[in-house]
Known about the structure:
This protein is an alpha+beta fold. It is built from four helices and six strands, in the order E-H-E-E-H-E-H-E-E-H.
Amino acid sequence: xxxxxxxxxxxxxxxxxxxxxxxxxxxxxxxxxxxxxxxxxxxxxxxxxxxxxxxxxxxxxxxxxxxxxxxxxxxxxxxxxxxxxxxxxxxxxxxxxxxxxxxxxxxxxxxxxxxxxxxxxxxxxxxxxxxxxxxxxxxxxxxxxxx
Length: 147
């Protein structure tokens, strides 16, 4: 996992980060207060974004990463090349949960798909950006080829 500043990222990566941060503003998280935004770049070069939407029982919660993937699939594309996830984490970096890592794995263009974890401060400004590959986040993963 590598730490980056926004200026160090490519133009496309910067767009993904900005889209994830913007999507987070629409999050519905009245129970946990943990707002998440995600944006992905599909294999055709289109960006899809989403935010988390909580349900009172938490089982009905839609994770931001899943919402972005669902939007991509609805558009007719099945492979993502890169993803950014924006959260306000109290400590450490901000990366997708295990469930979302598996969902990303299902639709990733390969194990080297990059995931950018964007940690925001209390004012919503970028504090840290960490880059990791899917392989680093989900080693020894299970996928469709195992069935």
